[in-house]
Amino acid sequence: MRTFFPAERTRRILSHEKRYVGNIIAALLGIVTPFCSCSAVPLFLGFVEAGIPLGVTFSFLVSSPMINEVALVMLWGMFGWKIAVLYVASGLVIAVLSGIAIGKLKVDNLIENLEQDTKSCCSPELYKLTLRDRLNFARDYTFGILKKIWLYVVIGIGLGAWIHGYVPADFIVKYAGKDNWLAVPIATLIGIPLYSNAAGVIPLVSALTEKGVGLGTALAFMMAVTGLSLPEFLILRKIMKLRLIMIFAGIVGAGIIITGYLFNYLIR
């Protein structure tokens, strides 16, 4: 992808002159890229290296794991088209507004020095590469990123898998039932340490709603698992200062909680 969309072209697409359009484009791009949170981080790295505004890159980072065509189809099949469309629309709003908010905070100084030579990926010669050249470039670039973040990936996924195996669904139902007005923030906090993509967590959402958890609460849990996973934070720590990760988690978490309450209010 990066060989066909080198830094300059990507920057032109996402660094739109009109205010906030870049955030909307980045969030929509995230919908058609069905990545989990950890898979979206390398693309996020590429956007940062390309000089794309930080707020725009965060809009992509939020939308890519949280909303995609896989989630849309599965939610449609389990809950109907209205729920599926509402989920995608709310996820899109969270992604766009989160990116705009982070962009307004001017926190570019909280990005760590990537110390990576990006001349090759930004060169106009990429347009003339053969298929073999593109595959070699992709291989070298992939291994370059893995060398920097592999330990964070192993630790994060291992920790998330361990917690996931020791947190049964009944525990979540106990503290996130319909009668508990703190159910939405509790479900959001419970979801953060777990790790899964949207396709993996939707069946759990269905099981939770059948056991009495409000749909908004269950969807807030799903958004937290996919958009605010602990493994993602561990990887992002490699390129961000802790303060920026906390700002990111706080803004997106607030959006998820508001969305959860809204779903519970609209769908009874």
Description:
- The chain is mainly α.
- The protein has one domain (7-266).
- Helix content is 72%, strand content 0%.
- The model is unreliable at 116-124 (pLDDT under 50).
**With helices defined by DSSP (H or I, 4 residues minimum), what is the helix count?**
14
Could you report the average pLDDT, rounded to the nearest whole number? Answer: 78
Strand content: under 5%
Shape: globular
Could you name the ranges where pLDDT drops below 50 across 5 or more consecutive residues?
Answer: 116-124
Task: Tell me the helix content.
Answer: over 70%
Structural class: mainly alpha
How big is the Rg? 19 Å
| DSSP strand count | 0
> What is the count of structural domains?
1
Order of helices and strands: HHHHHHHHHHHHHH
* Oligomeric category: single chain
**Largest sheet, strands/sense/barrel:** none
Q: Can you summarize this structure?
A:
With 268 residues, the chain is mainly α.
Secondary structure blueprint with pairings:
Layout: H1 7-14, H2 21-31, H3 37-49, H4 54-66, H5 69-79, H6 81-104, H7 119-122, H8 131-165, H9 169-175, H10 183-191, H11 198-210, H12 215-227, H13 230-236, H14 242-266
Structure characteristics:
single chain; 268 residues; 72% helix; mainly alpha; 14 helices
